[in-house]
TrEMBL record:
It comes from Flavobacterium pectinovorum. GO terms for molecular function: FMN binding; oxidoreductase activity. This is NADPH-dependent oxidoreductase. Residues 6-134 form the NADPH-dependent FMN reductase-like domain. Pfam families: FMN_red. One of its GO terms (cellular component) is cytosol. PANTHER family: CHROMATE REDUCTASE, NAD(P)H-DEPENDENT FMN REDUCTASE LOT6.
Amino acid sequence: MEMKKIKILAITGSTRKNSSNYKILKYISEHIKGDFEVEIFEDLAEIPHFSPDLDTENPPKHVEVFRNKIIEADGVIICTPEYVFSLPGSLKNALEWCVSTTIFSNKKTGLITASASGEMAHEQLNLIMKTLEAKLDTDTQLLIQGIRGKINDEGKIIHEETEIALQLFINNFERQF
């Protein structure tokens, strides 16, 4: 009898195709154990601007799809850049659509901020996810500064300490299940 795979929803905070954050999530999906199934959510740009007036029993289609993917996942990994000392607007917008729900409550969540600096965005993401009651652990949070020089165009991690940190992140995330 085949065991049920542990479903992980990986959300990239960047809407850029083949961004460093996407490459990190791809790396994680290729290096996580076989009993995990990682889906990278790439439709952040499709989610409409948050409006409390639209946050009803029947939210916009893309919001419903996003929420359902979170509900169906056993865990979530968010990997985001930092834009102007903050989270990218598209990621914050998507998370705002979750405030009126309990879909993140006690959901095992890993956070990675990979950017030039990233400290402010990492702090803000942590606060937002605590507000959404996500299950966070310091062992499943990672700040990767200067990401552009640590990953190549093909998505290979070319900085040994970063690869070690990512492997530790993966191991710690897997251990939660």
